[in-house]
Every structure is written in C-alpha cells, then in structure tokens.
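Side project, low priority. Logging it here so it doesn't get lost.
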Amino acid sequence: MALMKAVALLIFLPVLASGESLDTRLLERIHTGWESRHLTQIMEKTTVLGQAEVGLGLCLILSTYGSEKEKETGKLGFTSLALTGPVVSGLKYAVGRERPYEKTSRANSSFPSGHAAAVFAVSSVIASEYPRLKIPAYVVAGAVAFSRVYLGRHYPSDVIVGSAVGYGIGKLVYAKRKPILALTF
C-alpha cells in the first residue's frame, strides 16, 4: 500500500504543481488534437471493454465453461473486480472531481476511472495466470484507458490512478490466490 501511495504522489506532483494545467493540456491535446471520425468509432467500441459488466461476463464464462485453470482465472478475476469496485467508488465519492465535459453526480465523478481500474484488475490477473498473454492483456487495458481520455470522459490522471488501482488489486488478488481459490461458493 505504501508503494501505491508513493506512485500516486509521483504521478500527482506535476499535476498539483501546475494547478492541473498539465492534466487539462494533455486532455485537450488528446481529445481534440487527435480527433477523427474513424478513431472515434474505434475508441467508442474499445471503451466498452472497460465496463465492469464485460469483465464480470468474461469471468463468468471462464468460471462456468473453462478448464480448471480457466475457472481459477475467472474466480480470481471476479475477486479483483469485486475488490476494485468499492475502492473506486469510495475514491470517486471522496474526491468528487467533475468530469471534463459533463456534470455528473459525486458518485460518478471523474477520479479515478472505473473503466481503467476494472480492465486493469482483470488484465493483471490474466497476465499473471498466463504470462504469454501479458502483452495482449495490457495492450487492451491500455487502449481502454486511453479511450477514456480520447473520448473526453476522464483526465489523464484519472486513468493513470484508475489503472494503478486495478493493477495493484489484481496483483494483490493473484498474490493471495491460494486462500481465495480455497473458498467455495
């Protein structure tokens, strides 16, 4: 946990020192500077992969129809999502940062990105269970995180912290996999 705090502090120091102007400049550069009809279509489809329901669906399919190892992966992925959700919700409510281009409730605030957290939580479990899938898993997760900024739904720091939260929880779940897998439902 101390490592995550240190990483978060390093990420936020430049943002805090510049009064969020770096975060806003990066958002504008990506959201408006890279805008194209084709890339927007791709990003709208990509961002869906970060919905918790998609991760839960994948975990359910693995847990129900997979091999023994795939069932374990599904259970660990589900656990990582189950732990990530409350952490993200708590941070969203505590921080209450407005989204870049829309007004939302405090519970659906911008910081941190729930999509990034969810996809990184599942991806880190998959990457740990199947090392040969590490690069594809993190490419998908990174694309989802990028899509949130490209589409103007989050500031870059929102997705960085959401990604770190999901990654950290996924890695923690994998490190504690033996007692988790011993649980029966």
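Brief comment: The mean pLDDT is 87.
Revisit when time allows.
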